[in-house]
Every structure is written in structure tokens, then in C-alpha cells.
Amino acid sequence: MLITIVTYNPDIKFVRAMIKTIKQKGDQYNILVVDNHSKLELEELKDLTDYFVQLDKNYGLGAAYNYAIKFAKELGEDYMMFLDQDTIILDNFAPNRVLREAKELKDIEPVILSVNIDNALVKKEIPNSNFYIAKGVVNSGMILSVNYALKQPFLNGLFLDRLDFEYTYRAEKLGYLPLVYKERMILHKPGEGSKYYSSLCAKLLIAIMLMLHGNEKDRERYKQYGYYSNFLRYYLMLRNDIYLWLRRRIYPNFWKMIIGDLFLMCEVLGYRKSLKWILRAIKHGLLGDLEEDNKELFF
What we know:
It comes from Acidianus infernus. One of its GO terms (molecular function) is transferase activity. InterPro entries: Glyco_trans_2-like, Nucleotide-diphossugar_trans. Keywords: Transferase. Helices cover about 45% and strands about 15% of the residues. The protein is an alpha/beta fold. It folds into two domains: about 1-185, Spore Coat Polysaccharide Biosynthesis Protein SpsA, Chain A, CATH 3.90.550; about 195-299, no CATH class. The strands form three sheets. The chain has a nine-stranded mixed β-sheet with strand order 3-2-1-4-9-6-10-8-7, with helices on both faces. The model has no long low-confidence stretch (mean pLDDT about 90).
């Protein structure tokens, strides 16, 4: 199995520890690092990995994934795995075992799997197995059939956010069931940390979220949001959610996420500055010219 880590200005010490931990599992895993044109010197990572590729621009996560899929095919790999650059590898990390058990399931073709149960949207348990059927799984910890991924590439235009939910929703529409392993093998929390909402609009957001799909037990969870130092991450979430929801390329209940995105932009940027970016997100989400928007933002 080929394990791919996509990097962009990573914490080199942390990624180095990731790679060493995986290597301690033996020679059963080859590691590919695809770097999205970092501004850092990554010689330490080059020396540790089996394969290292640095792209000439930051083309985004989807493009890096699609490159890695073709790379895996050239190596003759049947399956591959994605890990984010801030993922903690646990002692029981064994994706080959997960894949082996998945192949033993009856009437289910193992196309998309995950060892990241903490961030999976679980639907139901598969009897007499170690798997749940998932409504969605996130990028880090995802295991993919290479042949399937070649036919169904990631959407480059999304650049970063919602790549995983669009991908698993598309698979479900095609009749493939994403599976998540019950045993936690990695730790990965989206964002650079958590922050508490502080604005008036945030208090309204919490009330709306609790009314729509929460209860008192969820109150503490809804008081916090995933923090990113670059506010463009919040912009991409809103733009991509609008784009995908209008085209029915993501779960129908994502209209709730759009509401949350709007309030989150106000929280992070303030009311006046956020209006400019909200209008821009609506414009490009409606038009669907994501690639052009990405060029203006990132190239």
C-alpha cells in the first residue's frame, strides 16, 4: 500500500516523526510525500521517504491527491492511503489489516475505507465485522482503490475544503459504500485548534444549530469552532458549500453548513469585512468558476 502525505509549509519535525512511526511498522508501506510548493527546505523529509515530489505551484489538495493516484498506479499499487501533515499515528496503525478484513465482507466492494472514526459520519454497523457504513469520511486516514480513484478523481477546483465529503457523497451515489473501521488508528483534528465564539452573531448561530440538530449536550461543542490562521479557509468552506449544494453534489443537509459558514465568516472577519468575502463566495459559488477564483487567490 502506498501512503501519501501532502505537505505545504509543514512542521518538519512533526512530519518526520510521522514517517518514522510508519516505517517502524516494517517495509509493508511505501511513503510518498507530495509537496505543494512549500517555502521551506524539506531535505530531511526527502531522505526519509520512499518517494518525494515537489510541485511547481500550490495547486491545492485535490490536484496533489490526483497526482498521487496516478503515481500509485504507475507503481502497480491496488490501494493507497492519504494522511494529512498534522496526523498522529497510533501504535495500532495497521491499514493493511483493515483492507484485508474489508475484502472479506460479503456483497460490499471495498472502494473507500477509513481508519479515522473520530471524524466519520457513521450510519450503521455491519454485523459480524469491525466496520461501520459511513455517510462521509475525511481525507486523513482515507484508503482508496486506485482503479476506482483513476475513474473518479477529486475535484481540483475545490482546492482544499469539502473535497472529502463531495468525494464520499459521489461514491454513495454510484452505489459504493464508504466504510470506517471501528478501531481508531490515527488522531486528526481539523483546524489548528479550537476557539470559542465571542460575537453576537455567534450566539445566534449556536441557538440555530441547537434548534436544527442539537440538544443541551451539544451546547459546549457548538460554542467552539475550528481555528485557522488563514481566513481564506473559511472563505473556501462557504464558496465550496454553495457551489456543491446548488449542484446537488453534496449531502442535502449541507444547507445547514452554509448557515454556519456565514456566521463563522462574521465571527472571524467582523461584519464589515466579511460582507465583501461573503458576496465573493456567493458569486463564485453560483458561477462555478472555481479554478479562476483559485488563480486569483493562490497563484
